[in-house]
Design brief:
The protein is an alpha/beta fold and 309 residues long. The chain has eleven helices and ten strands.
């Protein structure tokens, strides 16, 4: 979803030099130790990093738990955290257009930068208006198979930055990738014995990588990066008819969504509504309780079984 670079953000970047100049030793978002200092923009990469690095890194998550990811803009303290980090990990794509401007403004040129979309071949969204697909899906982490590649990339980078803990990072990464692979096999098994191979989202659909892994089909109200929030009457009618005619038992909605569209479809079709998580962000309670990407994906597996049974 394209978002213009805001005047507010430009002012933040300009003020960074004053802000950091008055606080040249300010690293309050990090512990006072020799650990790696790592900044991630979104929850999946934060969770990947903390699983690989354990207690050997201090990690800052820029996207506040409970906030809507597509409206994020960095605060002055966020930019200071990036300035003071050893490794900065972001997704890339149109939602992260602010990143290049921020990075070009920093004085610290020794930061290692990981743009995660560089490690995954992009898939392009198809919409009723653009059937050839002219916009790629940025939500690469929704695939457990992609997640394994991304964890490998992160592991290589932290080892390069902190080689004395190489064996520790490698061991953690190996265990984690094995868990991701085992969960992937559970999804494969569930889809392999399913009665139907289609899912319906009364919401955005940021899951092209996920459904491609398991050869699923889908119907949705909007593509994953759509800026729309209200579907047309024709779209809602189409989804209601589809759910009725195909006897679809579940209509999904996303985390941080009001679920209104899914509820409308449900009321006119008797399908249940269930949440399917994109893992883009988590609630404050989930974050405080140390919810993990794996746990969220396991919850997705459970609701998927209901939808395709």
């Amino acid at each position: 979803m394209k978002k213009p670079f805001s005047l507010f953000l430009i002012i933040i970047i300009i003020s960074l030099f004053v802000f950091s100049g008055c606080n040249s030793n300010e690293k309050s978002q990090y512990e006072s130790n020799d650990n790696l200092k790592i900044v991630t923009t979104i929850f999946p990469y934060y969770d990947f990093v903390r699983t690989v690095t354990g207690n050997k890194a201090d990690i800052v998550l820029l996207l506040s738990p409970g906030s809507e990811p597509h409206s994020y803009e960095p605060s002055p303290s966020d930019i200071v955290a990036i300035e003071n980090c050893d490794i900065f990990i972001y997704n890339g794509g149109e939602s992260d257009e602010w990143v290049e401007e921020v990075l070009s403004s920093l004085e610290n040129t020794n930061i290692k930068i990981l743009r995660m979309m560089d490690y995954i071949a992009p898939l392009y969204e198809k919409t009723p208006e653009h059937t050839d697909g002219d916009e790629y899906d940025e939500h690469i982490w929704t695939s457990l198979r992609n997640a394994q590649s991304l964890v490998n990339a992160i592991t290589d980078e932290v080892i390069d930055a902190d080689s004395k803990n190489k064996s520790f990072f490698e061991r953690n990464s190996e265990v984690y990738i094995k868990s991701l692979s085992e969960l992937d096999k559970k999804f494969e098994a569930a889809v392999g014995t399913a009665r139907r191979k289609v899912v319906v989202f009364g919401d955005r659909f940021p899951f092209l990588y996920f459904i491609t892994d398991y050869n699923l089909d889908y119907e949705c109200a909007f593509p994953g990066c759509s800026s729309e929030t209200e579907p047309s009457i024709a779209t809602v009618s189409r989804l209601i008819d589809y759910v009725r005619n195909k006897n679809i038992p579940v209509v999904f909605y996303l985390e941080f969504s009001n679920g209104k569209i899914a509820q409308i479809i449900s009321e006119d079709s008797n399908a249940r509504t269930l949440q399917f998580s994109s893992c883009h962000n988590v609630t404050k309670d989930e974050f405080e309780n140390k919810v993990t990407y794996l746990l969220l994906m396991e919850q997705n597996l459970n609701v998927l079984k209901e939808a395709i049974s």
